[in-house]
Amino acid sequence: MQSKLPNTTLSIFALMSKMATQHNALNLSQGFPDFNTDPALIDLVTKAMHDGYNQYAPLAGDLRLRENISAMISHLHGTTYDPQNEITITAGASEALYASITAFINPGDEVIILKPAYDTYEPTIRLQGGIPVLIQLQAPYTSIDWDEVRSKISSKTRMLIINNPHNPSGNVFSHEDLSKLEELLAGTNILLLSDEVYEHIIFDDRKHLSVAAYDKLAQQSIITASFGKTFHTTGWKVGYCLAPDNLMREIYKVHQNVIFCVSHPLQKALATYLEEPKRYLGLSKFYEQKRDLFLRGIEGSRFTYKPAMGTYFQMLDYSAISQENARLYAEGLIKENGIASIPVSVFNCDEQDHKFLRFCFAKSDETLEKAAAILRSI
Q1: Is-contact 121 104, C-beta < 8 A?
Q2: Distance of alpha carbon 26 from its chain centroid, rounded?
């Protein structure tokens, strides 16, 4: 039997986490917190279960949760999405991405991806018979050549995917970036898929500029987001998708046939929890303190870096230490030094290696201090 994804192997996240367990290493590779979520949120889930919300939720998600998402987006970005027709609760951002790509990509359609990029984009495109068109950003991946993007657009281009804030670089799109993107896509039938899962994690008094805030761009855009990233609940796999009604109707069709609906008690809990804006508005400062703790801890080390502008990842340049291949160097750090990271090369075209490792700082202060001590010793 012929595989639809013949080149797909175990993900780098699973591989590095497995090695971290085998070698009892600190795991700063996969992007999940090692601390628990707010007990108040857990109590709300328990209450929802006791209140009887243990059967199927509505297809698009709990209405109150969708209403509160709409209010949040309106407050943050000045744009109103209709809770009835333009918001869907998904099984994490991953399902939102899958449903969005599946709904619109047909065999032969081209999809532009800016690399380095999350490793689920390309396989999903290929499953639909689409053709990923890859644009490699220059290290440290904090600027985009929009003229190059323009040059890759053809009559077959159906979609362009961006990730803002950007994993793994920590870059945050500027107003100039989004204005150029809006101009680039104006008058075309190209859809923009904007992966905004780190929307509330922005540092140094910057502001997250969502495509939702750009009226013309928003009309041809799909936005995906994640409560797992926002509320330290990655294992719950609850996210959401925003899109104009005409686009959401097609996403509904895929969503209905892939999962139908998301855990009902989790949605009920998140609906209540979201009603206190401080619970997401305070996230930037929370993670900024962790980023700064980690970076202060590695002062004097041989690693170099630019502080992440957003996300909960920090890239470190190890070129002053070794010229070894990033994947091999990362494996060596696990085996010999007891610390796990992600080699950024795996996200690049043809695994182009610029000697960067990605470390997750969504960890307890104790974990970050131990990790910094190891890195200083290298």
Answers
A1: no
A2: 22
Per-residue b or e along 93-126, where b marks 16 or more CB atoms closer than 10 Å to that residue's CB: bbbbbbbbbbbbbeeebbbbbbbbbbeebbebbb
pLDDT of 310 > 80? The answer is: yes
Pull the structure tokens for residue 346: 């795996």
Residue 364: which of 51, 113, 33, 141 has the closest Cα?
33
- List the one residue out of 197, 161, 198 whose CA is nearest residue 181: 161
Distance of CA 368 to the CA centre of its chain: 22
**How far is Cα 113 from Cα 122, in angstroms, rounded to an integer?**
8
User: For residues 313 and 359, is the Cβ–Cβ distance under 8 A?
Assistant: yes
Report the b/e string of 154-184 with b at 16+ CB within 10 A.
Answer: eeebbbbbbbbbbbbbbbbbeeebbebbbeb
Question: Could you tell me how many residues make up the chain?
Answer: 378
Q: What is the pLDDT of residues 255-308, one digit of tens each?
A: 999 999 999 999 999 999 999 999 999 999 999 999 999 999 999 999 999 999
CA nearest neighbour of 222 among 116, 110, 98: 98
22 and 64 in a single domain? The answer is no
What residues make up the domain containing 148?
Answer: 39-276
Residue 5 in this model has a pLDDT that exceeds 90: no
Contacts of 207 (CB under 8 A, 6+ apart): none
Q: Which residues pair with 27 in a beta bridge?
A: 340
Please give the distance of CA 314 from its chain centroid, rounded to a whole number. 14
First vs last C-alpha separation in the chain: 48
Model confidence pTM above 0.85: yes
Determine the Cα–Cα distance for residues 231 and 11; give it in Å rounded to an integer: 24
131: left (phi over 0), alpha (psi -120 to 50) or beta: beta
What are the angstrom distances between the C-alpha of 70 and each of 75, 112, 151, 255, 368? 9, 29, 36, 20, 35
The number of CA neighbours under 13 Å toward the Cβ of 343 is 24
What CATH number does the domain containing 351 carry? 3.90.1150.10
Q: Which of 276, 298, 329 is the last residue of a domain?
A: 276
Q: Within 13 Å, how many C-alpha atoms sit on residue 142's CB side?
A: 13
Q: Would you call the peptide bond into 116 cis, given omega within 30 degrees of 0 as the criterion? A: yes
Final residue of a structural domain among 243, 261, 276: 276
Q: Is 355 left (phi over 0), alpha (psi -120 to 50) or beta?
A: left
